[in-house]
Amino acid sequence: MRWLTTLMLILAVLVPLPAQAATVDKPPLAPTPPMGWNSWNKFRCNIDENLIRQTANALVSSGMKDAGYEYVNIDDCWMATQRDAAGDLQADPVRFPSGIKALADYVHAKGLKLGIYSSAGTATCQGRPASLGHERADARKFAEWEVDLLKYDNCHDGGIPAIERFTAMAEALRATGRPILLSVCEWGANQPWNWAGELGHMWRTTGDIADRWGSMVAILDQQVGLEKYSGPGRWNDPDMLEVGNGGMTMTEYRSHLSLWALLNAPLIAGNDLRSMSEEVREMLTNREVIAVNQDWAGVQGHKISDSGDLEVWAKPLSDGGAAVVLFNRGAVGAEVATSAAELGLPAAPAYEVRDLWSGQETVTLGKVRASIPSHGSRMYVVRRGVPAKPVPAVATAVRTDTEGFVKPGQTFAATVSFAVDGLPAVLAAEVALTAPEGWTIRPEGRTGTPVVVPGRPFEARFAVKVPGDVRKGVFELPARATYKTVAGDGAEREEPGYGSVIVAEAPRGSQWLSDLDPVTADVGFGTMGRDRNIGGNPIRIAGVPYGKGLAPHAASEVTYYLGRGCTRFSADVGVDDGSRNRGTVTFHVLGDGREELAATGVIKGGERATSLDVDVSGVLALTLVTGIGPDNNNNDHSVWGAARIACAGPSTTVTATPTEVEIGAGGTFEVSGRLVADGTEPITDVRLAPSAPAGWTVSGQAAQAERLEPGGTLAGSWQVTVPAGADPGAVELPVAATYRAQDGSTPSDSATVKVLVRPAGVVAVKEAESGTLGGAARVSNCGACSGGKKVGNLGNGAANHLTLGALTVADEGEYRLILDYLVSGTRSVFVSVNGGPAAEVRVSGTSFAVPATTTVKVALRAGVNEIRFFNDTAFGPDLDRVMLAS
Ligand code: GLA
């Protein structure tokens, strides 16, 4: 048989094995999901040994240690910027003067464990020394310091496959002989659920969490389907907790913690434990929620139902019960429901339902449901059996006959139902509905009943009137049912119901989405830009400018009401150039019930826009979602460029030419305008004309049409004269259209011509930002500047200059160069005309926000001139505008 062995050996060498991790004999840690604290979410690089000591103290004094939180994890930035003479990692001497061993001793003395951080790269994500190629030495140091956990990150990977890099560290840790928990942090980029469990004890499944609702739910969505990979000793890690960091409401934090507990996520608090509120402390130490997370069977919870915004997540427990989170991620309150059977519980006459946040215990015959406010949740453990003194489970719900959306002035019907889901019946039920101030509510019939039995809910109807002058947005309609139980303590009880409606008006005709108000806009950072990027600058994707568009920072969810009246949504999607070729984003267009109508793959910063053209016929509400891509949400400046919706109804598009005019006082220029009827119905009594400011004159008749069919156009042109005494500066001249729609309404539309009135004697005006920039010179926003912008970073090197060309004068000769600049102190700018010798212009000022003016003489030639502004040795002033006067 020797030949067979030889043949097998040859085959083993020739047939490449699929890439997979070697099985490292990892230490048996983390039978249940690890719990602890980590410095990153709250403190970033602003950490030191006092913070770590105080946090260890706080873990003990707050009761968190007793609740199970064990690891005190120092994230990035603990290490000195250089390795020591022996080539070893060393602690930052300023921030951690006592060293890591001393901290480990301190933390151990408190009965806690110490975690540390490095990256499987040439540097950490914050640019500190990291462990790629130093695995053995660094692991030895961590063991020598008596560290108990290593969070191993993925930045600066040196182009080496992740599995290789993480295997090297797992083996190095193993070789130390010290049991060190390995937390794999490669952001879910290489499907770590397939291999990281062989090496470590937990692995990140996504990019970084941010302290934002949108980020939390985006991460939640990425957990679906991963439940089968986790179990004792190997956990999916949807990233650390943000509870208590201030960027979400307490309702949202409660959902975050409930869901993370159910997902068997490592519960790693990320807030300042030294100063947390009592409410946050109580939330983090809820023993029953933690018990679900730490259940020894280690079966991860997963989503069992999803009807758009309403989700049910469930987890089987080792004692035969089931934990459940009823979750409402929508903008309006709603009932979320499941049943004992759907939770996988065996058939039984009745079930105990324990609310883990209120501590209330009730009994149900099978239904498990509750009314849940927007972004809220309820978390229960459901088991077979009946408590000694059963109190029946009840549910209050608010329904309207509106599909959730109402118009100003509308009257609608709201029904409050009160149901009993367990035994025995309840008595003296009374329901009430509350409306926002200024709204009226009238009950239509009874609001109470003496007895409510299971299967026969009591319903009360109300007529609700929305005021005519109401703002748009979400309005709550809270309800309440009060009742008495026969059994139990017989006390009066109360069950809330969370109803809401959204005041919205459906768009008509073709519209830019950036001209409409969204119903909700949850964004990953800052506020959504409309026709501007999130930095307030013009939108650009791979160099292409977009005058119109939406710029939400991913992860984002922005919803518009369409009222089933629209047919198409179109946009060019990509990452804004403001992210400087960084950032990775995905785009998803969702219809009602979160149905995906269109989606892109991952789009990177610097890539050309992808055009979307989506059929939205019959869609009531359109949701535009951007995801954070495979890495974290840094630089994820997602843009829906030229986002447009085509809807039924009248619509026009007006354009005017030129879009910009520069003219002296007393001068006359020509403007032409054009209107396209681009809606789905004819428009009548159409009129188009410039509407000039007082004192200006417009000659030429308004363009008029009695009726325009869809696709019809109307055009006109006019002579506009600026009064001789007009003040210099920018003036907006609208070319305005009015018309009558078929429903009798009289909408208007316009396009604007920007007129720059030159001061007397001025023959040419140029905004600095219109010039050619060299080197580090940059355009920046400046509220007090003409055109709202200036050029900064001029000088301090020959490369950093500004050139203004196309300065046209009629005659050769000496002119006055009027320079609007900004500076605090005194600086010089050098001026060179048509490549000639440089003249120094010394300027002084008090502010980089408000321009000042100086005048110098320059010699120009007849026709086109070019002027260069620079300073080869020192910084120059910022420049706002340049004018030439005779
Ligand atoms: C990455 C990780 C974060 C954090 C930072 C530190 O972004 O995913 O959790 O550790 O690095 O730089």
Automatic annotation (TrEMBL):
Highest taxon in the source lineage: Bacteria
Signal peptide extent: 1-21
Similarity annotation: Belongs to the glycosyl hydrolase 27 family.
Provenance organism: Nonomuraea africana
UniProt entry keywords in alphabetical sequence: Disulfide bond, Glycosidase, Hydrolase, Signal
A Pfam family matched in the record: CBM_35
Molecular function in Gene Ontology: alpha-galactosidase activity
Catalysed reaction, written as an equation: Hydrolysis of terminal, non-reducing alpha-D-galactose residues in alpha-D-galactosides, including galactose oligosaccharides, galactomannans and galactolipids
Domain CBM6, residue spans: 764-885
Major enzyme class: hydrolase
Protein name (database record): Alpha-galactosidase
EC number: 3.2.1.22
PANTHER family: ALPHA-GALACTOSIDASE MEL1, ALPHA-GALACTOSIDASE/ALPHA-N-ACETYLGALACTOSAMINIDASE
